[in-house]
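User: I'm writing a short report section on ligand binding and want a predicted complex to refer to. Could you take this sequence and pyridoxal-5'-phosphate and write out the structure as tokens? A short remark afterwards would be nice.
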Amino acid sequence: MKLFEVYSLYDINLTHAKGCYVYDACGQEYLDLYCGHGVISVGHTHPYYVNKLTEQLNRIGFYSNAVINGCQRDFAIKLGEITGYKDYALFLSNSGAEANENAIKLASFSNKRKKVLSFNGAFHGRTAAAVMATDNPTIVAPANQSSHFTKISLNDITSLKRELRTEEYCAVIMEGIQGVNGVRFPSAEFAKEVQDSCAETGTVFIMDEIQSGCGRTGRYFAHQHWNIRPDIITMAKGIGNGFPLAATAISPMFTPVIGQLGTTFGGNHLACVAGSAVIDIMLREHLMDNAKTTGEYLLEELGKLPYISEVRGKGLMIGIDFTLPASKVRNALITKEHVLTGISGQNTLRLLPPLCLSMEDADLFIHKLAHCLSKIH
Ligand SMILES: Cc1ncc(COP(=O)(O)O)c(C=O)c1O
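Assistant: Sure. The structure tokens for the complex follow:
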């Protein structure tokens, strides 16, 4: 078979990786500030992570959710502790879209309502409900189209209240920080208003922490900077450090119904060991503190470079607006400076480096970006 070509590819064939660096088949080293869409949290091929997965694979890699799985229980305890949500229950799946799909289903099962409110610029995944909550009509197939999904502007309290007052919405789904849209924040006031309006109208508040969670912003969840406590929180990307693992954390107000949610692969032994290893490493190596300090340093230094109109971010989730097309900067960074970054829209470069990024690597990036910009025209 040939591959179904839905991706536009860079001409790079990565064969190995270590920490914040990846290497291609010719041995060329790249500084990885994007981590394959923000997935590598504790660094590539971390020896503790590799050992834990290898040991588990030699014991048992997979069995379905028909039996007790101790690895799941261990992971749930660790996740409850590191997140501060010990009283929430955990449903495990394999991808961010699935975590959101299950969150929306659960909300709708619980209050029997059909509508979902999300925000302009949102990205929640590509499956049936998740894609409808996403603000990108080009990825919605006719079969997914539904009139149950409404979008309003982030931080628009008047529209939020107007919609929720109808009591037709099963859920509001909001990203901790919008990632695909170029690192855009809800205000703390707005986040609190979503929480309060949801509580007043019997609407479930779903917080999508798939990109902004797992310690990336210096707190475990971005929404913890806004001092709120949503009803359901979704996670994926960094929690498995590359092993497919997604989680839906569910408040005690929901009662589980046998058979209502389910998956074959979700929460398998290997995935849970990957998740537990990530938490162990984050705690031992103080990676949330590192994300905070290295991120603050980057934000300050990046603002001093030319062609940059704005730098936004928290911890190691950073959006840089350029006065030039971001694709031009990104291409030059890859081909000339051997640095991997991401883009959002026309003018924004997005950084989602591993949480173990050192000050030396942050300086190296600033130096390489400055050099790249000095040659750009
Ligand atoms: C905020 C957010 N939600 C959901 C998703 C979907 O995750 P996945 O691609 O694992 O389905 C993404 C992916 O980029 C995301 O950034």
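A remark for your report: The chain has a mean pLDDT of 98. The longest strand covers residues 169-175.
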